[in-house]
Amino acid sequence: MRESMEGFRLLTLYCFLFSSMRIATATLDTITLGQSIRDGEILVSADQRFELGFFSPGTSRSRYLVIWYKKVAPKTTVWVANRDNPIFDTSGVLHINAGGILVLLNSTKDIVWSSNTSRSPENPVAVLLGSGNLAVKDGNDNNPDNFLWQSFDHPGDTLLPGMKLGINLVTGLEWSFTSWKSNDDLSQGEFTQIIDPHGFPQPFLKKCPVIPYRAGSWNGLHWTGYPQLKPNSMYSYNFVSNEKEVFYTYDIRDSSVLSRVAQSPSGVGQRFTWMDQTRTWAEYYATTRDECDNYAKCGAYAICNVGNFPVCTCFKGFVPKSQQQWSIYNWSAGCIRKTPLDCQHRDAFVKHEAVKLPDTSHSSTVKYISLVQYIEGGQDLYVRVAASELGIIESRRQPSGKKQVNVIIIVASIISGMGALVLAWIMYMRKTKLKNEGK
Fold first, then answer.
1. Alpha-carbon span 307 to 311, nearest angstrom
2. Element of type H or E holding 435
3. From 334's CA, which of 69, 193, 282, 327 has a CA 20 to 30 Å away?
4. Is the pLDDT of residue 91 over 90?
5. Domain count, the chain
6. In what order do the strands lie in the sheet with 43-44?
7. In a domain, 17, yes or no
8. Residue range(s) defining the domain that contains residue 113
């Protein structure tokens, strides 16, 4: 009996020590070969900013492997591994194999989700970084360019500082972020933010098969559709476009500030900043605030201005393509030229100030689609029109015969004037001479 009790005590002590060891291991920021994360355990980034663990959103019982802010309540998730394949109990377990692949298993040992890599590591390690990036690396190689895999290359519905939005033109990897279906369902929703590299690269909000919104091209400081997002004391913005990649990224100047860009299930893109005083997320900006933010609201060769009524007007020198549709406030057909361009004569350019530059992604012939005018910000755009539409064609282009007549009249007037002066001078001199002789 005494031996049985002693054996039970040893078994209890072993289980306690094993459990403590697993919990201690699970609260580190790293997973190595032989280690795992089970439902109820977490990884914590070294700076105590982010955690990785299992989570059920809202009223859902589905379990997802996610990354969230450690010190923000309620939980705000920034990345989801198995968003389209949830686990329906608490059996989930994450581990890393010898090939450097992260594998998420369920109760039947089926693979629910896995990462990938194109290289064979010697000592694969998964680490949760202070940026919110879950990275798989080889040993102590901390160079991001050498990561075997990273969650930053596979955004969910959130863009964190340092993440890319764009495309790798060499590998085809697209950095985009997609909304959830709902606040209770983390699977891919209807709205995706991308950067289209064609024409002048620009961000688009996609809801297949339509484009609800675009941000305009980069002007060196900001997207022309986001005039409020200029470099400031809080944020820095960067845009890269070369033969290898096209991407946009942003950073926080004060690393202690929490900030994120999220794509909501309703299609609104929002930038949030965490306020420690109120313990809430403050909205810094949101897309699609008014009807002019809707893509191609006014069609081609027209401009949208919420300060006008109606909001859509044709460029000078253009008329509605369908006056009937225009009269019932359906402007989608846009406008057409009133007078065709005449390349043999001088046409004119009309300046439109403070506009979002047109969409150039689908054609080399710009049709000036989706133009918005702002109270401040935006760019100047010059649109070519027939000179006759500005009432200047006659002054620029006169018949050659009329020009010759004008020249003759001018020359004759000058000669006549000079002749009159010479004649007056001769008469004056003669009169003076006669007066002197009379004396």
1. 7
2. helix 400-438
3. 193
4. yes
5. 2
6. 43-44, 50-55, 64-69, 77-80
7. yes
8. 1-154
